[in-house]
Amino acid sequence: MPSISQAVLLSWSVPPAATLALVFTALIYLRGWILLRRAGVPFVPPWRAASFLLGLLSLWIALASPLDTFSGFIVTAHMLQHMLLMMVAPPLILLGAPLIPLVRGLPVFAAREFAGPFLNWRVATRIGNALIHPLVALLLMGVVMFAWHTPRLYELALASSSWHEVEHACFFLAALVFWWPVILPWPSRSHWPRWAAVPYLIIGDLQNTTLSAILALSDRVIYPSYATMPRLFGFSALHDQSAAGAIMWVIGGFAFVVPAIVIAIQCLQARPQEQRATSPPKVESPSLDALVSLSHRLSFGGRWLRRRLSTGAVEAISFLLIFAVMGLGLAHLASNSSDDDDQVLRLHEQSGAFAVSVFAPAGDLGTGPSDFNVLVQDRSTQDVLLDSTVSLRAQPTNSSNSAESVRATDESENRLLQNASLNLPSAGDWTLAIEVARGGQNAEFSLPLRLTRPETGFAMPWSYVVLITFSALLLFTWVRRRWMAQPRHAIKHSTAVPESTQAKKLSY
Predict the structure, then answer these.
(1) Whether residues 272 and 151 fall in one domain
(2) Which of 59, 106, 150 is nearest to 292 (CA)?
(3) What letter does residue 325 receive in the DSSP assignment?
(4) Which of 85, 366, 406, 476 is most open to solvent, judged by the fewest CB atoms within 10 Å of its CB?
(5) Residue 250: Cβ within 10 Å count
(6) 394 closest CA partner among 418, 356, 421
(7) How far is CA 26 from CA 22, 56, 96, 219, in A?
(8) How confident is the model over 469-480, as pLDDT tens digits?
(9) For residue 187, is the peptide bond before it cis, meaning its omega torsion is within 30 degrees of 0?
């Protein structure tokens, strides 16, 4: 039987789809980085590749580590997760100068037909430049931080794994936009003089300090879910909230102030003519089209295909195969992944020597298999009892027939909880009986359940809807680009009737 600390460290909730996407991103970047290094591009030294990979690793740790598992129980864990998503992963990723290596690492067909034209598209360029403008980036960061920390949106993220993922995406993307004007990943340019990054970071720190002070100095629990959640490590919900605010204050202040000091020192050490410059000179770098065309002879096709098809056809077929395999794999993993975040506290009672908390999906349950997680604690000390025996039994409320008793195991993502799956065959009112035994002491708890029949009909998972929509956009982009690239005079000549044919018709 593992100790409490060991159980906490083993409580990983690895998201399959996100993990595969991050691994795939790392491989694309490494391929592009290697090709650029072979081509003699001097702007991607090894330390940039290491920074990018470290940023992806910190992002994965935020999504898969015990910080995510315990984010619904402890505000401190949730706040540390947010700090990784906003203060650690984005600047490390941007220090890796990811734009060109990612484009170059794509298959040649994808880089030439989609990524390169999109990055050179005027509309995309204007939108990107508007987003990374310091005023817009600062405002976006503040709005996202304060909005998601309001009780209503914060509780929404705690109650649903889907909204929790949306919250994480908002934090990460807003942080990427915020850190862009500070780091200026190659080959981007600054809208303002370099010294302006110092007040920019100070204002960002003021936003972070204001929010963290609200959490740290509040005399009440701001988020009701943490007030009703069983306490795992002895300290109260209010103390947990104050510690979370202090962590946000310290880590956030360090993340903002240290870069501001470094940039200030760099500006003071610069030559006078550089200090008087209103904007930095434009960095001369190879165009995206030139970088995409490097090592054009590399192909994912085999020799048999290259002997029978053109290079362009091989590239297109290779891209379609890779896109189909990766897209269907990500969609399948995203639609079939289970998450304890979708479970809520359904019962918290004390009986005998035990305090028991039962977690299950919110609302009425559907007929069929249902998962239940049970936390057993000592009633007086609130210590988690990992060596207790938990059995679950369900029966219809108005019937003596009961389902088979199932013994809970420690297979839950949260290793402090015990998990059991019960098959509930029919709709109606049911009662779930939870029996707890430890060291000769026993207790029984009951939880009323309402079961409904699942709705019949076909419902496509959202991940496949996203895949189909993205595929349609890629196809539309490719067709439109081909049509725009075709000369107008060629279209007219192809539809016109030759003069010799007209003369023959007139002679008859």
Answers:
(1) yes
(2) 106
(3) H
(4) 476
(5) 12
(6) 421
(7) 6, 8, 11, 45
(8) 878 887 777 777
(9) yes
- 197 DSSP β-pair partners: none
Name every residue whose Cβ is closer than 8 Å to that of residue 193 and which is 6 or more positions away in sequence. Answer: 277, 278, 279, 280
CA distances from 309 to 306, 314, 397 (A): 5, 6, 69
Within 13 Å, how many C-alpha atoms sit on residue 182's CB side?
Answer: 31
Nearest 5°: the CA angle 110, 314, 304 is 150
Residue 48 falls inside a structural domain: yes
Token readout for 505 is 């018709």
Structure confidence by residue, pLDDT tens digits, 367-392: 888 889 999 999 888 889 998 999 99
Q: What is the three-state SS of 40-60? A: CCCCCCHHHHHHHHHHHHHHH
User: What's the token pair of residue 22?
Assistant: 């991050």
Longest pairwise C-alpha distance within the chain? 113
Phi, psi of 124 (to 5 degrees): -65, -40
Closest CA to 176 of 132, 121, 119: 132
* Residue 497 within a domain: yes
Question: In Å, what is the CA distance from 318 to each residue of 127, 214, 475, 476?
Answer: 31, 53, 16, 19
Q: Are residues 485 and 397 in the same domain?
A: no
Examine residue 333 and state whether it is found in any structural domain, yes or no: no
Rounded Cα gap, residues 238 and 227, in angstroms: 8
Phi, psi of 379 (to 5 degrees): -65, -35
Give the domain CATH number at 371: 2.60.40.10
Q: Comparing C-alpha atoms, which of 444, 456, 447 is closest to residue 367?
A: 456
**Taking the alpha carbons of 382, 383, 388, 394 in that order, is the dihedral positive or negative?**
positive
Question: Which residue range is the domain that position 423 belongs to?
Answer: 340-452
Specify the DSSP element, H or E, that contains 356.
strand 354-361
Q: pLDDT tens digit string along 145-188?
A: 999 999 999 999 988 888 899 999 999 999 999 999 999 888 77
User: What number of other Cβ atoms are within 10 A of residue 143's Cβ?
Assistant: 13
Q: How many CB atoms lie within 10 A of CB 352?
A: 14
Residue 107: CB partners within 8 Å, gap ≥ 6? 300, 315, 318, 319, 322
Alpha helices in 442-498 (DSSP H): 462-485, 488-495
Name the domain count of the chain: 3
Residue with tokens 């993205």: 470
How far apart CA 38 and CA 294 sit, in angstroms, is 10
Q: How far is CA 354 from the centre of its chain?
A: 38
pLDDT tens digits along 265-312: 988 887 655 544 444 444 344 444 444 444 444 343 444 444 545 566
User: In this structure, is residue 466 part of a structural domain?
Assistant: no
- Contact, 203 vs 181, CB < 8 A? no
